[in-house]
Batch of 2 targets.
Target 1
Amino acid sequence: MSVVNQLLNLQKSINEYALLSSEELDERIAAAKSKLEDRLVILGHHYQRDDVIQYADHRGDSLQLARIAAVLKDTEYIVFCGVHFMAETTDILTSDRQTVILPDMNAGCSMADMADDQEVEECWEFVTKRFGDSIIPVTYVNSTAAIKAFVGKHGGLTITSSNAEKVFAHALQAKQRILFLPDQHLGRNTGVKFGIPLNEMCVYDPKEMEIEYPHGEGDPRIILWKGHCSVHMKFEPRHVHEVRSKYPGIRVLVHPECMYETVQLADEHGSTDFIIKTVRKAPAGTKWAIGTEHNLVNRLAQEHPEQLIVSLNEMVCPCLTMNRIDRPHLLWSLENLLAGSPRNVIRVDSATTEWARVAIDRMLHIS
Ligand code: 13P
Ligand code: SF4
């Protein structure tokens, strides 16, 4: 069958699943899960929709899910409800005997797409020419396997929002400067926590292939890749002022992918896990405006009716790619596993896996 016909058939069968009633989807997902028994584990990121995350055997942030993947030695199928780079990380951390499935291949991450391997090679040449052998590359896990492999090969490691300080401490002991990929905001906000002045952080623009000094030209300790999360960029300083005047006494809690100016105005900032734990331990009556992905903020609001929880920007949309994973795609993936024909398999080639694993293992070792 031609590739076009295969794609048309694939589309046709997914469209059929999209027509199923909510009850039928729930019944068939539950039935498929129980037939697959312990051959299957479903991992779900906290940003997933409620109707999907309810089926996750383990839910977590990207660091927690990577840790779980690293110890799933006997599971034949791992269905990852999250985005592409997370499924890649899972494949890297599991053996060739195991199969990782992403229910919808369109579940990418626009931030991860902002750094491609060719551009990163060019950047490395540029910065090492300018600053010599003084740089360690560090990549946020929100990056492709190829970028993780590049970082592993050049003595660096991966980072997540929940271990950012530990990884920075390690990196700054190893080298004078960090090349931070691909999220400039997590890099800048973590640098500030380390007391690094803004004028000692520059930004590398991969399109212009040049360095910018948005806060003055000091000797850079951190070279930030010019990338961002389009969801977290929607939380602006004006939203902090607006929410404080609308809800007096409200506390503002944001993810470090938000821009520096917003983070500085917030009462607290931290990873997805930090946000969840902070809300869980707050007393009844606490008011929160949270700057992170919409599905998670809504879930926290439902789970904590004793607190007032709103989004820092009530007009913000959920992460569109995280939301690509829905029950029809999940059921389609599970029933294909039952039929013995896994679809949407995520397989990272062995050369990339080898070096990407080095970068991830270095991170897991110090986290
Ligand atoms: P965590 O590392 O907090 O899971 O975040 C992943 C992510 O995609 C944030 O936008
Ligand atoms: Fe990527 Fe942002 Fe979505 Fe996270 S919230 S998956 S960084 S686009």
Target 2
Amino acid sequence: MKKKILIIFGTRPEAIKMAPLVKDFQHYTDHFESKVCVTAQHREMLDQVLEFFNIKPDFDLDLMKPNQNLSNLTADIIIQLKSILEIFEPDYVFVHGDTTTTMAASIASYYSGAKVCHIEAGLRTQNKWSPFPEEINRQVTGRIADYHFAPTKASKNNLLKENIEESTIVVTGNTVIDALLQSIEKVKVNPSPTVKILSEKLNDKEVVLVTGHRRENHGEGFERICKALKDLALLKPNILIVYPVHLNPKVQEPVNRILQEVPNVILVEPLAYQDFIWLMNRSKIILTDSGGVQEEAPSLGKPVLVMRDTTERPEAVEAGTVILVGTNENLIVSETIDLLENEQRYNAMCMLHNPYGDGKATKRIIEYILTL
Ligand code: UD1
Ligand code: UDP
């Protein structure tokens, strides 16, 4: 009998990191009947990824609401997934990472009796307020999951400390690197119209790429980040700061208010994944609070300043390609300027390495599921 697999995700980063798994399961139709369910916790930003990877979900809950809150979103996901789980009756449900979709889908799947497989398991800060609510989303999912696909040895060790049975943990690398390695050549060979326009706009300027969206930075944190970017732009008029602005209204408002009129800051809509990885590659330095961007940048040899106080991804910090600067205005400005001016330090941070994977994570995940 074929095993029934349901892959559930809802936001942009989950979609990028689940896409290689969705595609690989399609090569095993003798063993598995696999289906995709999107909660659409994100809408436009999810659809951009589905289009690039040519994924057509079997179920689409279409849940996103403008300025949604965590309580309603959590409840809606659990309630709406119930009937999908009853119709399809999966043996295994795959969830990814630490979003509200991840946590709520794990709960709904547990209630339905399906086995829960957690991709990108075991990352921890042990601080329930940072990242909020992702740290607790990931811990709850870890308690529920039957199988844990940890990207690194450090994440496996976190799970062992929580008395998770070792035989249920597999170190796979992060599927974000599978997606990156599968996509980056395509992007170089066949650049999109957006890349051509951006390329002309950027000309030969040094580019500082910025992304940001974390809930714990909403409010004062974002005010400080934007003020730091404005100061940086004024102190370094020859650089271009390019910022694809996340669609969350709590991000859009301060970013547009503080940065719209600054001449060497380019604010753009969230970029399609293929355009964003082109832009990462074109950039000199990346300032971000994103989890996925922290993982991708070392594979592209780009230094990253992380605008957070903690990270559940310590591997690149230990290797020296990522520095934590928090949302401290002075530190963001001084560390960026130092990297722009101090060539020796910059080169030391540019080393190419892949602490988060070798591009074969999905292969390892499927090989493990075949043994069950
Ligand atoms: C969510 C995840 C976060 C993840 C991030 C990736 C939770 C609690 N948060 O944060 O872990 O790192 O996604 O980007 O799970 N919006 C749109 N269109 C979109 C996407 C968002 O308009 O395609 C707007 C909507 O107004 C929406 C709001 O952004 O209500 C917030 O979206 P939500 O998914 O709740 O939070 P994020 O900040 O995106
Ligand atoms: N990304 C993208 N377009 C953008 C910004 C980011 O496709 O304009 C990609 C990026 O390559 C990475 C992922 O989105 O794979 C990170 O998503 P995000 O920062 O929203 O979430 P996080 O990783 O922090 O959960």
